[in-house]
Specification:
The complex is a heterotrimer of chains A (329), B (321) and C (307).
Chain A lengths: L3 E14 L2 E14 L3 E5 L6 H9 L7 E10 L2 E2 L5 H7 L4 E4 L13 H12 L4 H14 L5 H5 L8 H13 L5 E5 L7 H18 L2 E6 L2 H7 L2 E6 L2 E7 H6 L4 H9 L38 H5 L5 E2 L6 E2 L12
Parallel strand pairs in A: 3-8, 3-9, 6-7, 7-8
Antiparallel strand pairs in A: 1-2, 1-4, 4-5, 9-10, 10-12, 11-12
Helix pairs in contact in A: 3-4, 4-6, 6-7
Chain B lengths: L3 E16 L4 E17 L3 E5 L6 H7 L8 E6 L2 E2 L5 H7 L3 E4 L13 H11 L5 H14 L16 H13 L5 E5 L7 H18 L2 E6 L2 H7 L2 E6 L2 E7 H6 L4 H9 L39 H5 L4 E3 L5 E3 L4
Parallel strand pairs in B: 3-8, 3-9, 6-7, 7-8
Antiparallel strand pairs in B: 1-2, 1-4, 4-5, 9-10, 10-12, 11-12
Helix pairs in contact in B: 3-4, 3-5, 4-5, 5-6
Chain C lengths: L21 H11 L1 H18 L36 H37 L1 H16 L2 H14 L4 H15 L1 H17 L1 H8 L4 H37 L11 H7 L3 H6 L5 H25 L6
Classes of the chains: A alpha/beta (329), B alpha/beta (321), C mainly alpha (307).
GO molecular function, one term (chain B): ATP binding
Family (chain B): Belongs to the ABC transporter superfamily.
Organism (chain B): Paenibacillus glacialis
């Protein structure tokens, strides 16, 4: 098995609002291994982006704050690093691409400028070497005529091209981990297919680990080696991708898998999870999914289920259905 | 053959591009470029395509929410572009629209009950008791509770706002509803709820839908017939079953194969299209798809293919079918 | 109806909670903004001072007494007297009435003209829009202070009675300032018109009257309130500046501006600061307070800032 690259240990990121505390990330633990793609899936507001932002330490504070836990990167706790040490890791060893390829590029700088900048900053290349490397990178992300693109401005490119450029920038310093936060959500399906292809390619060529955040189970099935499912700030299930799709354990995961219409498999009626995501403010200490769950028992309403494996070591979930103890004490 | 509810012929909608000091028109975005189709009573027609293909513009133009450039739109035999303003206003309740963005589609300063019911006031119902009753009834149908009548939109989640939008469209008992990407802004678990709501409503109220979406799987689930659009033109249209079993146009094929399937064991042989969608302001000559088409040849560059019936009510515009 | 449509999760507290209107939210945000609240308290204080204060004054506005001229602040004359022996405190309070009144009335005029023209331009568009906006451009291109000076001179020339001058002044300041507001309102309406809820009103076949009064105008009110608040300060400053230059409110009617200008010689300026510091402070406090309120309102009414 590959070495562990990043380990989240009981991470807690909270946001203080006037209405109360939002535990955006609540006791989250999982491991990203070298050369592996780990997908975090969940609906909006489940804490998947906040988890990634915590890793990058880009949480806006206030209102947000990492209040507990550890994030180990190659054995070193990132949360203990100084601002300077962290900024050396950020963009160098860990880099990130975002959902909105329009707003993540600076409109007044040329593409070339924006790619060369981190190269000169982190890799200490001179202008000429940086340009050479930048053109290589543009080539790597599948753009023809890299010299021309080098001198163009973001508005001259389409959404898909911009996302490619973002990936090129992210890859500029040979990061060990690439965080992709909904990288294809804003793109059309045919362009999404291109970008996903590109990311798979890069992973193979450069052996980069990828932390992919998405809400689309289709993307997960295509990209992931390992999947983490989040709901209302907690990890409720994690498993290797095949395991998860073939034998989902948590009712929420099951519901998600059934709720999505699949092409060429027409059903009469879609399965739907009733109700909606709970208000994240001051959640009680119970299973946050209980009011939408069709298997809800008394204990679910009062106590949080432990997160552990039931059977296979690699497949963990947090649900009372798989526990011996079911009595309300 | 069933009754034709909406008949659209050679519809064109060009948006002018202005430039220069004097805001002169320097070109046109051909958002909808010569599209014809019919929608029969009680069916749901799906329109799929990528961003900028003009599907939303069609939805708005056939309701005369923006003006057409050319062509005719007949709703129940009435040309909605030749109706005088007041008559058109009276006819509007019969054809409604549900929007994509659950946030901008509701006025933040109007209470939900009022937003749903206000159309009744302007169409002759003045008794506020009756209005309240009808609003509550419609809210109930759409899965909203009566205590939510006096609340403001900002207190609702995306899915609930979408329900409010649907209730607002339903209050006047419409016959035809344009659903413009009604679920794309929602989370998966909420999407399924709204899709089910829409299909229940169709069954109970014999509604006719024009369902606009970029998501083929949703369209397959909900629609009887599907039209595929690319850069302002219809490239293929047929019954849902036929289209998904036997897609003919290379774009349709590519679109279908591009959808990620939530099954890691699924073996796909994906057709990955090269390049980007060209700008609708300056579409390629001949067949608009030829710049990205895996099977394009010289004829495609020069000559636009005819949009023709290849049997079984399966219409397609490609030289190689 | 099917099972999955019906359930609506109700947070335990949603039912009990009173309806949270957009105005209430705005109020809450405003009251949480310390600077804005300080501004509000300051302005309330100024109003109380100017409108109620004079009732408790033992002096009279026309108590000329040369024997008491140029007294420094003391027990009888808290802020001293001017060169005609009049109580500065009383004059300052009465001047405040006029200044605040000028500010408010001029702003009302500004809002009426600006909001109406802006709304008309935005809603009807095309030719009407072009016409109104070009007129606005012309107004904006004219430098306002020289215009005010010319108009002030014209008023003097026409021998308008000093007591009715302030009314002309209000109208002139009001009329000259409408363009900013008209632009804001027009811009707001143009963006609103593109919103999907406005398309929905069209699709529902609502009448124009309902579209304008129920949907468009309520959404422009925040913009109007903020702009109006800030323009009150502007109007007060204009009035003070004009009165200082001797072409606004003219003596014996007191105004903060002409009180300062009365201290325009070096001796008064150096040796008798009680002549000009109090009215100067009033102008400063009032305009700072109003600007603080305006900024607070802007933050409170902007739906994009979520706090």
């Amino acid at each position: 098995m590959a070495k562990d690259l990043v380990e989240f240990r009981n991470l807690e990121t909270h946001f203080q609002t006037t209405a109360g505390t939002v535990k955006a990330v609540d006791n989250v633990s999982f491991i990203i291994r070298e050369g592996e793609t780990l997908c975090v899936v969940g609906e909006s507001g489940c804490g998947k982006s906040v988890t990634a932002m915590s890793l990058m330490q880009l949480i806006e504070s206030p209102p947000g704050k990492i209040v507990g836990g550890e994030i180990l990167f190659e054995g070193e706790d990132l949360l203990k690093l100084s601002k300077r040490e962290m900024s050396r890791i950020r963009g160098n060893q860990i880099s990130m691409i975002f959902q909105e390829p329009m707003s993540s590029l600076n409109p007044v700088l040329t593409i070339g400028n924006q790619i060369s900048e981190p190269l000169m900053l982190h890799m200490l290349l001179d202008r000429k070497a940086a340009k050479k490397r930048a053109i290589e990178l543009i080539n790597l992300v599948g753009i023809s005529r890299p010299e021309k693109i080098f001198d163009s401005y973001p508005h001259e490119l389409s959404g898909g091209m911009r996302q490619r450029i973002m990936i090129a920038i992210a890859l500029s310093c040979d990061p060990k981990l690439l965080i992709a936060d909904e990288p294809t959500t804003a793109l059309d399906v045919t362009i999404q297919a291109q970008i996903l292809d590109l990311m798979r390619d890069i992973k193979q060529k450069l052996n980069t680990s990828i932390l992919l955040i998405t809400h689309d189970l289709g993307v997960v099935a295509e990209m992931a080696d390992y999947v983490v499912v989040m709901y209302a700030g907690k990890v409720i299930e994690e498993a290797p991708v095949l395991e998860l799709f073939q034998d989902p354990q948590h009712p929420y995961t099951k519901g998600l898998l059934k709720a999505k219409p699949i092409i060429n498999q027409k059903q009469e009626r879609l399965y739907s999870i009733p109700g909606q995501v709970p208000n994240p403010i001051d959640l009680e200490d119970n299973c946050h999914f209980h009011d939408r769950c069709e298997f809800c028992m008394d204990i679910c309403k009062v106590k949080q289920p432990p997160f552990r494996s039931h059977g296979k070591d690699t497949h963990k979930s947090a649900c009372w259905l798989y526990e011996e103890e079911r009595e309300v004490l | 053959m069933k009754e034709v509810l909406m008949q659209v012929d050679n519809l064109k909608k060009y948006f002018p591009i202005t430039g220069g000091v004097f805001q002169r028109t320097v070109g046109h975005v051909k958002a909808v470029d010569d599209v014809s189709f019919r929608i029969h009573r009680g069916e749901s027609l799906g329109l799929v395509g990528e961003s900028g293909c003009g599907k939303s513009t069609i939805g708005r133009t056939i309701l005369r929410l923006n003006e057409k450039t050319e062509g005719t739109v007949l709703f129940q035999g009435n040309d909605i572009y030749s109706l005088p303003k007041e008559e058109l206003r009276r006819m509007r309740p019969k054809m409604q629209i549900v929007f994509q963005d659950p946030f901008s589609s509701l006025n933040p300063r109007i209470k939900v009950g009022q937003a749903i019911g206000e159309a009744l006031y302007d169409h002759g119902v003045t008794d506020s008791k009756i209005i309240r009753e009808r609003v509550l009834e419609t809210m109930n149908i759409c899965g909203l509770a009566s205590y939510q009548y006096d609340r403001y939109p900002h207190e609702f989640s995306g899915g609930q706002r979408q329900r409010i939008g649907i209730a607002r469209a339903l209050i006047m008992n419409p016959e035809f509803i344009v659903a413009d990407e009604p679920v794309s802004a929602l989370d998966v678990s909420i999407q399924a709820q709204i899709i089910n709501l829409l299909s229940d409503l169709q069954r109970d109220k014999q509604l006719t839908y024009l369902f606009i979406s970029h998501d083929l799987s949703v369209v397959e689930h909900l629609c009887d017939r599907v039209g595929v659009m690319y850069l302002g033109s219809m490239v293929e249209m047929s019954s849902t079953e036929e289209l998904f079993r036997n897609p003919l146009h290379p774009y349709t094929k590519a679109l279908m194969s591009a959808i990620p399937i939530p099954d890691p064991t699924y073996k796909r042989d994906r057709i990955v299209l090269q390049g980007d969608i060209p700008s609708p302001a300056n579409p390629p000559s001949g067949c608009k798809f030829h710049t990205r088409c895996p099977i394009a040849s010289d004829i495609c560059k020069q000559q636009a293919p005819e949009y023709r019936d290849v049997g079984n009510d399966h219409l397609v515009a490609c030289h190689f079918v | 109806m099917s099972a999955d449509v019906m359930p609506i999760t109700e947070n335990k507290n949603t039912k009990a909670k009173a309806v949270d209107t957009p105005w209430k939210t705005a109020m809450r945000r405003f009251t949480r903004n310390k600077l804005a609240v300080i501004g509000f308290i300051m302005i309330v204080f100024m109003f109380i001072l100017c409108f109620i204060g004079p009732l408790f004054s033992p002096h009279n506005l026309f108590d000329y007494s040369l024997k008491n001229k140029n007294l420094a602040p003391n027990g009888t004359y808290w802020l001293g007297t001017d060169k005609l022996g009049r109580d500065i405190l009383l004059r300052m309070m009465l001047a405040g009435r006029i200044s605040l009144l000028v500010g408010l009335v001029a702003t009302c005029i500004t809002v009426m003209i600006g909001a109406t023209l802006g709304a008309v331009a935005g809603f009807y568009g095309k030719l009407v829009d072009n016409l109104i906006m070009r007129v606005a451009d012309i107004f904006m291109a004219l430098p306002s202070l020289p215009i005010l000076i010319i108009l002030g001179a014209v008023l003097s020339d026409l021998k308008v009675h000093p007591s009715s001058r302030i009314y002309y002044l209000m109208v002139i300041i009001g009329v000259l300032n409408w363009t900013t507001l008209a632009r804001l309102v027009r811009g707001q309406i143009l963006t609103l018109r593109e919103q999907e809820f406005m398309q929905a009103t069209e699709a529902l076949g609502l009448k124009d009257k309902r579209k304008i009064f129920k949907h468009l105008l309520p959404n422009t009110i925040p913009v109007i309130i903020v702009a109006a608040t800030l323009s009150v300060a502007g109007a007060i400053l204009s009035e003070s500046a004009l009165s200082f230059l001797g072409i606004g409110v003219v003596p014996p009617t007191p105004s903060w501006g002409n009180m300062i200008s009365a201290a325009n010689n070096l001796i008064d300026f150096r040796k008798r600061p009680w002549l000009w510091i109090p009215p100067g402070m009033c102008i400063l406090i009032t305009s700072v307070a109003i600007n603080l309120i305006g900024d607070g309102l802007r933050d409170a009414l902007d739906p994009k800032t979520k706090k």
